[in-house]
């Protein structure tokens, strides 16, 4: 799949803050059936795709709350369409996202059909319940080592320098929201392809991600994503 598109998807999860229940956090509403639709725009402002984020299931047990979610991405090209299913776990102090969940379903299915030996390692994305300006968040990464008929290949994705930098009001097609602003640096590598990006994310209480901007290593805008509708 397109490495840059996967990098954007990884940054989406690496930046966001979410909750599984109201007692876990103030931000993302994790109610079964909740749905959020986004439009994605290219560097020239042209509509370049869309994504839909759905809360599939929420369960409680063992002092933890878990939420299963599905995100579908539809790019401007047929080969830029994929889905991701991932899981949140909330323990009360904050949440974590299983790093194994950050690999697109189609990519994993394709490699299984090819009888590829695969080893996935990484660091779960940890997110505190409360966010304040100046706060720094932990790094996160996922690494995939593969062996195909004796040929070895690795896929890496890492997010660093995660920070809360401001509070701002943001207006999109879905309305006007008071947001906290998060930034991070994103790096990914597959074979000889490398992508370095920086992200800026606007997050609203009770809604979640409202807007996301992605910049290349020269600081120029590469893409923008905005919330267009939501239901919960």
Describe this entry's structure for a reader.
The chain is mostly beta strands. The protein has one domain (3-231): YmcC-like fold, CATH 2.40.360.20. The chain is 9% helix and 61% strand. The protein contains 2 helices and 14 strands; from the N terminus they run αβββββαβββββββββ. The chain has helices spanning 3-15, 105-113, and strands spanning 35-42, 47-61, 64-75, 81-90, 94-97, 117-123, 125-128, 136-137, 140-148, 151-172, 175-190, 193-204, 208-216, 221-231. The two termini are 31 Å apart.
Sum up the structure in keywords.
about 230 residues; mainly beta; YmcC-like fold; 2 helices; 14-stranded antiparallel beta sheet; disordered N terminus
What's the structural blueprint in terms of helices and strands?
Layout: H1 3-15, E1 35-42, E2 47-61, E3 64-75, E4 81-90, E5 94-97, H2 105-113, E6 117-123, E7 125-128, E8 136-137, E9 140-148, E10 151-172, E11 175-190, E12 193-204, E13 208-216, E14 221-231
Antiparallel strand pairs: 1-2, 1-14, 2-3, 3-4, 4-5, 5-7, 6-9, 8-10, 9-10, 10-11, 11-12, 12-13, 13-14
